[in-house]
């Protein structure tokens, strides 16, 4: 799995035989299932892999936050009209955002309108607030209800890259083996920490070298988003033991370009 700023990807091997519940589901499934032969010739069937792979545009950490903020602005204006004395539209009466750290002040500007925010740091409420942005439709994620092939959770191993790793490591410092309980508690503790304390910790270099002020601001939101993507979107069991977040696998960086090169050069002589 890979989560960037704008999009989210998942890829995993699936059985050669998949049962579809309807012709429509079968049609949708064919567009996200592919067979790859990584052998040296087309006859080497032992190197054929059937892979489910898809991209969720707008489901990256930054775009998810942007969609969340857009809705905050739209709902505030719809509720209050243009009465500038109402909650969120004046600095003295900010909107209490559960997904920002406690006591942190922020603003959102859209066109001629500015929305004033103040962090509440409420992990549970933040989870509830971000869940609708998964666009869950008949148990699958995205507004279009993209087909998701079944995952054998009893016999699989997943790696989470980019935002999955940054979310766990840059601030929370628990990158690597994923435990939903440990992660949720660390995220909750972070969200409920005062903004002034978090900035002091950053100044004292208590976070990773990659952490910056932007990471601190949106860590609470992104940690809730990642959690919901995993468990509500991709439906990973809360006790799933085989997810690791990483930057490298066997000391090598894994990116989609590596897969493309393997596929394009699969029939070239190995020598």
UniProtKB/TrEMBL annotation:
Name of this chain's protein: Ectonucleoside triphosphate diphosphohydrolase 7
UniProt KW Cell inner membrane keyword: no
InterPro entries tied to this protein: GDA1_CD39_NTPase
Keyword Ribosomal protein: no
Family (UniProt): Belongs to the GDA1/CD39 NTPase family.
Entries under Gene3D superfamilies matching the protein: Exopolyphosphatase. Domain 2
Alphabetized PANTHER family for the sequence: ADENOSINE/GUANOSINE DIPHOSPHATASE, ECTONUCLEOSIDE TRIPHOSPHATE DIPHOSPHOHYDROLASE 7
Key words, A-Z: Hydrolase
Annotated organism of origin: Xenoophorus captivus
């Amino acid at each position: 799995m890979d989560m960037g700023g704008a999009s989210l990807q998942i890829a995993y091997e699936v059985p050669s035989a998949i049962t579809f519940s309807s012709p429509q589901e079968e049609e949708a499934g064919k567009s996200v299932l592919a067979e790859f032969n990584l052998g040296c010739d087309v006859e080497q069937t032992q190197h054929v892999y059937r892979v489910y792979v898809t991209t969720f545009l707008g489901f990256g950490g930054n775009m998810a936050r942007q969609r969340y903020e857009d809705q905050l602005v739209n709902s505030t204006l719809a509720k209050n009209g243009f009465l500038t004395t109402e909650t969120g539209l004046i600095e003295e009466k900010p909107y209490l955002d559960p997904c920002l750290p406690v006591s942190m002040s922020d603003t959102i500007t859209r066109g001629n309108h500015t929305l004033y925010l103040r962090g509440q740091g409420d992990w549970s409420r933040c989870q509830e607030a971000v869940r609708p942005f998964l666009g869950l439709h008949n148990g699958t994620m995205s507004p279009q209800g993209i087909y998701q092939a079944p995952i054998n959770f009893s016999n699989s191993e997943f790696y989470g890259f980019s935002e999955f790793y940054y979310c766990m490591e840059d601030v929370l410092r628990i990158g690597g083996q994923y435990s939903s309980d440990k992660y949720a508690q660390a995220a909750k503790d972070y969200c409920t920490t005062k903004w002034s304390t978090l900035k002091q910790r950053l100044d004292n270099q208590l976070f990773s070298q990659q952490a910056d002020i932007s990471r601190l601001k949106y860590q609470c939101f992104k940690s809730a988003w990642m959690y919901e993507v995993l468990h509500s979107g991709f439906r990973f069991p809360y006790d799933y033991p085989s997810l690791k977040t990483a930057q490298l696998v066997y000391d090598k960086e894994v990116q989609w370009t590596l897969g493309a090169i393997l596929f394009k050069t699969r029939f070239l002589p190995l020598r």
